Predict the structure of Chorismate synthase.
Amino acid sequence: MSHNSFGHLFRVTTWGESHGPAIGCVVDGTPPGTVLSEPMIQRFLDERRPGQSRYTTQRQEPDAVRILSGTMPGERDGELVATGTPIALEIQNVDQRSKDYGDIARRYRPGHADITYDMKYGVRDHRGGGRSSARETATRVAAGAIARQIVPGLVVRGALVQIGDVAIERSRFDWAETRNNPFFCPDAETAERWAELLDSVRKRGSSIGAVVEVVAEGVPVGLGAPLYGKLDADIAAGLMSINAVKGVEIGDGFLSATLSGEENADEIRMGDDGTPLFLTNHAGGILGGIATGQPVVSRFAVKPTSSILTPRRSVDADGQEVDVMTKGRHDPCVGIRAVPIGEAMVACAIADHYLRHRGQTGRS
Ligand SMILES: Cc1cc2nc3c(=O)[nH]c(=O)nc-3n(C[C@H](O)[C@H](O)[C@H](O)COP(=O)(O)O)c2cc1C
């Protein structure tokens, strides 16, 4: 089962599965001298960690990261400096309950990857979904923390902007608010509505989809490349690779189809500092695959969790028709914990393009 790597010059290879002893990744390409520390990476893992509110799965994984290679002690206490060699990161799996998954050893959960893994490989670790489990995404978040250190001035932030058909009110968007509620919601009033909505979804043993928005600021002008090296294509690929993601937009995305050319044009003037100034950002900070210097705006749709308590029709590995109901602990809305994962994938794509840009132009 190959294809476990993402990126070119900043290249992340992840390993491990839900119910093995540990998961981890190897981050290759971190420039020598980059300053890191375990607490700096841990901070982002803590945002994705399960069991932090009643709206996420009650699995208790501390997700404590350990750096195994690629660094040496820095000048300050606890500080590490990248040597430029591969950085291996490890996270122990501690809260597995493999018996929860006995029922699906031979039955395929509708909406999950069980059936395609079996049809393709003929072998499948059903415990917790094995490699198809979103447990793997913890390692991406760790890699994303390193990526953020590579691009000077880069700030990547994510927010949940819609659950089911309840979207935030744009005029109330406040990044600070994303830290005040369990949904990464930038709008306090909508967060209250979501709490009610999710309580009812949870009580029914059902699940619900969501939309996540990720905004990267401080992306240097010129990052990206035409055609097959488009920055937006690589961001989209990174986001689409996250479990349960079914749609990605850059800038106005699908809304662009409804705009006229006049409305969609991001007009340009000369700014006071003598550089071009874009008056709007329908393009989401990327033109021709190349960063304009504006915020890079992406959005992705996450489908409802397939683990639900209502039986659904399916088949088993012997070709028998069966009903499947998924027991065990699950997130009623996986979009919530997808927020830090989306941030990480955007940060990794930008760090990769930062190094590629430097390689091709000699400039940062
Ligand atoms: C943070 C996160 C947690 C997830 N937890 C679950 C879960 O508990 N149960 C489940 O059925 N799917 C869960 N998923 C989604 C599955 O991993 C995903 O649907 C499955 O691998 C099939 O892949 P696909 O949906 O991308 O086609 C989760 C996804 C994310 C992003």
Notes: The radius of gyration is 21 Å.
